[in-house]
Amino acid sequence: MKLISWNVNGIRAVYKKGFPEWFAKESPDILCLQEIKASLDQFPAELSEKSNYEISCSSADKKGYSGVATFSREKILDTKKFEKELYDSEGRVLIHEFQDFYLVNAYFPNGSRDHSRVPFKMKFCDEILVKINHLQKKKPVIITGDFNTAHSEIDLANPKSNQKTTGFLPIERARLDKFIAQGWIDIYRQLHPQTTGAYTWWSNRPTVRERNIGWRIDYFFISPALLKRVKKAEILPEVRGSDHCPILLELK
After folding, report:
1. Catalytic residue (choose from 88, 146, 155, 218)
2. I want to staple 32 with a disulfide (CB 3.0 to 4.6 A). Which of 16, 105, 108, 205 is the partner?
3. Paired sense of beta strands 93-97 and 2-7, if any
């Protein structure tokens, strides 16, 4: 089973940059998208009418902002949003129940350049951790998406100069420590503990991506019970169309 997660920075924008061809070529069993910036009725018809995929969507109330969507060929038993207006009004979360696991497609808030949204982001981190811990009592969980935080110094090109930048603040990094302390596995880092230069987001400033001055802020975290089923976890930096690249998880 192939799962891919990607912050597309606007589904209508990425659609014009080779997304349909990429989607057809990769042919994932489940595709989780973040920052779709559209409601389902605004999706290009070629995507919204994909007959072999079930499509779920949680859009923000504010037009052209945030939002998550999931395309699944696997049978979904149930789909819920976060069920809290604070987050659902921003299209932050979709929770899918499959036969063997839950899948949470999440777009964590950005702390904002002036740090004004860091408290909101911390509240979201705390509450989604409670949510996935609760789900895990029923069956294993995969949570994926743009966490908007680089966990360790190995996860960004310039850790020293970003100590006071949102996305690498000690308070944000400590939230990911908390996920790991409670047993959640950052599966990419588990399988590639020493790999440097492995990033999923780059600033749009000229030559930044070419020089690989990036951050790893997109993740698959999994329940320990799923570890034995993991075949591979990869980052796909060669895929263009967004300021993020897709990440991949294959299960046996």
Report:
1. 146
2. 105
3. unpaired
3-state secondary structure 22-67: HHHHHCCCEEEEECCCCCHHHCCHHHHCCCCCEEEEECECCCCCCC
Q: How far apart are CA 251 and CA 157, in angstroms?
A: 29
Number of domains in the chain: 1
Question: Do residues 200 and 218 lie in contact, with contact meaning Cβ atoms separated by under 8 Å?
Answer: yes
CA-CA distance, 143 to 184, in Å (whole number)? 9
Report helix, strand and coil shares of the chain as percent, to nearest 5: 30, 25, 45
Cβ neighbours around 180 below 10 Å, total: 14
Q: Which domain holds residue 112?
A: 2-251
**CATH number of 100's domain:** 3.60.10.10
Task: pLDDT band for 84, please (50, 70, 90 cuts).
Answer: very high
88 is catalytic: no
pLDDT at position 51 over 90: no
Tens of pLDDT, residue by residue over 214-239, are 999 999 999 999 999 999 999 999 99
Dihedral of the alpha carbons of 48, 142, 7, 54, in degrees to the nearest 10: 0
- Whether residue 36 is predicted with pLDDT greater than 90 in this model: the reply is yes
Angle between helices 118-136 and 170-181 (to 10 degrees): 0
The vertex-246 CA angle with 34 and 235, nearest 5°, equals 140
